[in-house]
Structures are given as structure tokens and as C-alpha cells.
Amino acid sequence: MRTVPTENCDVVMTFPDTTDDHTLLWLLNHVRLGIPELIMQIRHHRHTRIYAFFVTATYENLLRGAEEIGLRKPVKAEFGGGTRVFSCEEDYIYQNIENELNFFTSQERQSIIRYWMENLRAKQGETLHNIHFLEGQPIIPELAARGVIQQVFPVHEQRILSRLMKSWVQAVCERQPLDEICEYFGVKIAMYFSWLGFYTSSLVYPAVFGMMLWFFTESDQTSRDLSCVVFALFNVVWATLFLEGWKRRGAELAYKWGTLDTPAEFIEEPRPQFRGVKRISPVTNCEEFYYPPWKRLLFQSCVSLPICVSCLCFVFVVMLACFELQEFVLSIRELPRLVRFFPKILLAIIVSSCDEVYRKIAYWLNDMENYRLQSAYEKHLIIKIVLFQFVNSYLSLFYIGFYLKDMERLKEMLATLLVIRQFLQNVKEVAQPHLYQKVQQGEINSRSILLFVRYALRRLVQKYALPQRPARTPGDPLEPGFGNRKKCLNGGCGVPEEEEEGISEEDELEEESIMDCGLKLKRVSFLEKEKRVEECLLTQQDDDIGFLQEGSPTLMEKGSDPASVFQLGDDEEDEKEISGELQDIEEQETAVKLRPHRKRKKKLSVEQELRKEGDEEDDESARKQKRESWMDPPEDHNPTKLTQAEVESCMKKYEDTFQDYQEMFVQFGYVVLFSSAFPLAAVCALVNNIIEIRSDAFKLCSGLQRPFGRRVDGIGQWQVRS
């Protein structure tokens, strides 16, 4: 399938396939009346079968929005230079104000549009189905929290993304283009990558010093103890200088990107997921949700604390079990040295798996504690995650170092944890988004997996369990094991012109062979599918195109009510016939048993095709004269094309930089706390971080949805935790 760029769209809002027309009309009408600055387009995605709103805004409205959110823009040199909060009254003093295409970056446009969408507020007594809004409550975040809106995400800009792939992902030995990252992904993500780059460059010093100690330390115990003490003192000094150096570097970047003196919001909006009982606020005298603090404290005492203790006890039990397995393996002297690392590798894999489980538990506990503000929610989430990660990652090392007091074993355990965990994390970060996208697009499903497993099992059974079949003589027209069934033409399964009438089903081997033929036929006939679909679409009259045809824009009479958008379908029966033909074609190609005497569809002649195209163009021009489109992109009837927005809607959402900081937090602890026992720990961390920068960049540029830009002045709570 070919991806078609999505034009005139900055933000996409998608809805589940079960969304009714009333919900779409209700939200469309509220956006049209409440946010007149936005231009809304309705689409129906062909592949995922969902509705979507494509959102953008005009340049003049974006200027007013930049003033509302306090966006800082660079000032011309003749007016003093530097940056300044944008003002429409003095717009002439800003650089590139005359250039509508380059004054705002795509990330700034999307941030302004998101600000408007989050400030669409409900009036008193407004309801949608069973959702009752409070007066002044943001509508779109509430609908997203309730699942009415599936997702809201900004679209990628392919031109800039291609440039970032070359200058950032593929340029391994060059400096990161932090300014371009900030312009495209926002300050928060750029701040993370700048911190990661600063941390990686700082690791050069302990890596070099550790290699010197590793190669030049004598083998006697006194020299080892002395080098351990010296390296521990070096780590203390290095960690202090690194943290203070980053404070200075972070302040420089915040000033450069215009977020150093960003004022905090005076009133922080409640989280959309916050739930409680309605009451009149004693401060504002307005209706609000209230959750008693004693309920949160009760949940923390009776649920959160026992679960946390149980998880920590489980980690301890698993660690002891792995150590017992290690003792058993060491007791067998005949085993090779590599096999003796198996218990350590097993423990590293279990620790990595527990990280994901504990992360989900921490999120669930935090959600159940029901914090009102996002800042409080993130603070308590970091506390839980850090507690789980600290015990899960460092417990075995502390046990070996301070209870068993085995430095050689500590060295091996630390090396195993560093290498295995970092390898698994990098593979998961790169592979998981792409697998998620394949599943969402339907390229990987349960049926394809089942067919693959059946095929693999059948081949194994034929190879090891069943006797070998006698070789067929060249003149034998029958295949062994098929009874009286003839061999497929063109070598077996290459799109046969004729198929025999009788299909014998005498035994299981015959059915398996037929399934094999079906699988091969499916693989070689994909190109034929595209031709057949095009033939079906050519027989469709333009007047029979129903409302909201998949992938096509929605036309609306000028000045008409939005409700008329759902009444533009002309004739649903013809549309059902076409969809039925497409479904029949797909069923024919995915069938695992060959059908006898399959009839082929006659192709239209070249003259008929040209005549059809001319009629469609005439009908299209006549219809465009009667109606005025409020969406610019033209209709697309090619089912093999996917719009960029539809492809990105199948991608995995980039949650936050939280998990990325979490990985580096654990690694930083390994280097600072335990590298005195294993001086090459900093070398392993340095190599991993060089790969980590590019893998995270590749993940952002190719496998995930584009996140909204966030304006921050630092790395937040992680500066304190470090």
C-alpha cells in the first residue's frame, strides 16, 4: 500500500468505529460555535473504518492564538533582538512575520490548536448521552478520558522528518541537532535528548579511568582493594560535577529556547480522569468534583502499601531462587563456563520483565488514588516507580556485595545486568512500535499467526514424524498423496488458468496439501487483487458515491446546517454491491482451499476506461459547481492508498519522556554505586547510550505518533532524584 501525504491538516481527532452520528454532530456543532478560529474537516478512513476530524487554522487566527498562549518569538535586530512574547499590536517587530509559511513551526501551530481545543468549555447543564458536564469543564479532554474520542494527535511533517532522519538518526558520530529537535518535537523532548547527550559525553571520564584501572591494576588483593577505593572516590567527585554541570547547561538551553522565565499557571486544571462527588466550591462558588482525602489515605494504607510490599517480597524470593540455581550449576564442575552464566542471565531477564509489570501496577495504583492535579499525579507516580525500580534493579547487587561479600560474583552480576537489560530495552523500544503499527493496520492478526503456526507444525511433522514420500517420476501427472487430483499448472501454485472439478478429501495429508496450495496462491496473487479492485471501482458511477466515502472529503452546502453532512448519501444499494464485490475478492484470495472453476472478471477495453474517466470528470466538475468544499484535498478512490493521517492513527502513542528518564536513572545508579567493583561498567553504559540516542531518535521519527510539544524549563523531578 502507498501512503499519500495529508495536506491542510495539523491535528487529527479520531473516533471509535461504533461512534454514532449524533455524537459527531454534537461535537462538530460545539467546535463550530465555540472555536470559530478552527477549520474542521470530516474524513472516513478507508482501512480502519473510523471517522476523523482534520483540524487546522488560518494564519491570522494563529497569530491571535500565539498571543493568547504567550508564545515567545525572536525579534528583529533593529528592534533589539532576542526573544519576546508575541503581540499582535507590534507584530512588525518579529522576524519572518511577513512569511506565513515559516513564521510558525508546525509544532507551534499544533500547540496553538491544542490550546483552543482544550479550552472548548461546556455550558451549565450540558450533557452528551450519559456524560454530564460541569459548567466551564473542558469538553474534548473529558470526551477523550471517557473513550468517546479515541485519540488526538498532531501529524508529522515529512519534509522536516526526512531531514531529521539524515542529520540525527543516521549521523551517529555527529552532534545532535538540538535546535531542530526543539522546533519539531518541542522543548520537553529536546531537553531530554540534550540531557542524554550531556550525560553520555560525561561518561567518557569514568569510562577512560575505569579502563585504566582494569588493565593496570595488579592481581593481588591489596591492589584490587586500593583501586576499588580510588574509583569509588572518583565516582563521588564525578557524579557531583556532572549534576552541577547539567544545571548550568540546562539553564543555558532554557534561556536559548525561551522557557527559563516561563510563568507557571496560576490555576491548574483538574485532570480529566479525576472523579468525585459534585459540590459547590467554597472558593469559587461553582460546581466542582470533590474527592475526600480520607478515601485516598484509606486506599494507600489498605491497598497500595500491601501491594508494594508484596511486589518487593516477590523480587526477593525470585532473587534467592536464582541464587540457589546458581549454586547448583556451580556445583557441577563438568559444565562449560558459558553455561554457568545462565542463572545470571535468567535473573536479568526476570528483572527486565518485572520492570514492565511493576510499571503497570504503579500506574494502576496511582489512577486508583485519584489525584486531582496532574502535578500531584506525576509526583506520586515517580515515587512509586523509583521505589519499584530501586529494589528490583539493585537488590541482588546489594545482597551479593554486603551479605555474601563476593566481589567476583558482584562483578559478573553487574556486567550481566548491564548488558542484558540494556540490550532487551533497546530491542523493545525499536521493535514494539513497528509491531503495534502492523497489528493496527491488520498486516499481523490472529488468523495470519494461526496459519503460520499450522504451516510450521505441518512442516515439522512431515520432516520428523512422517515417512519420506517416494520421488515422483517426470511423466507422472498425479501428485503423491492427492488421489486423482491433477497437479496445478505453472509449477504448482502460480495463479492457475484452470482448476480441476473434483477435490478429494480422503485424508489429513490431502487437506494439509490443499492448505499449502492456498497459502502459496495467496502469496502470488496479490498483484491480481489490486487490478480487480480497480476494475470494480471503474464500474461505479460517480453519482453512486455515498456520503463520507472512505478517504474522501465531506462536501457541505455553503451556509447549510452541519446535520446535512450526514444526509448526502444517494444510493446505498450500489455501494453495498461494490463493497460486496471487494469482500468476495478478499475471501477468494485468503481461502485456504482452492475453489473449482473460478470465473474471471472481464477487463474493460481501453476505450471504455477512457470514456468512464471522462464521464467521472464531467460529473465531478458539475458537482463542484453546485457545492462548495470546506476541505481542500480531493477525493481518492484508490483503495491501495492510505493517507498519512490514517497510517499515523495506527501508530503507537508516545506517552512521555518518563520511561526514558527511568531507564537512565537505573543505569546511573549502576555506574555510580557499583562500578567500583566492575570498572568497565561506565564503558558498557557509554556504548549503550550512543546506541540509545539513535534508537530513541529512530523510534520518534519512524515508529510513533508525533507528540504535542511541551514547554519546560528543565528535566523536572528527575533532577532532584538524580
pLDDT < 50 runs, ≥5 residues? 477-531, 537-579, 585-607, 620-636
Total helices: the number is: 22
Numbering strands along the chain, what is their spatial order in the largest sheet? Answer: 3-4-2-9
Largest sheet: 4 strands, antiparallel
Overall pLDDT level? 75
The global form is globular
Secondary structure category: alpha+beta
* Overall helicity: 55-70%
Kindly state the number of beta strands. 14
Distance between the termini: 46 Å
Task: Report the sheet-strand fraction.
Answer: 5-15%
Report the radius of gyration as a whole number of Å. Answer: 32 Å
Number of domains: 3
Secondary-structure blueprint:
Layout: E1 2-4, E2 11-14, H1 21-34, E3 38-44, E4 51-57, H2 59-69, E5 72-74, E6 83-85, H3 106-118, E7 127-128, E8 131-132, H4 139-146, E9 151-154, H5 158-169, H6 178-185, H7 187-202, H8 204-216, H9 221-256, E10 277-280, E11 287-290, H10 293-331, H11 342-369, H12 374-404, H13 407-440, H14 446-465, H15 508-524, H16 526-538, E12 555-556, H17 572-590, H18 606-626, E13 628-629, E14 641-643, H19 644-649, H20 658-674, H21 681-703, H22 717-721
Helix pairs in contact: 2-3, 5-21, 6-7, 7-9, 7-21, 8-9, 8-21, 9-20, 10-11, 10-12, 11-12, 11-13, 12-13, 12-20, 13-21, 16-17
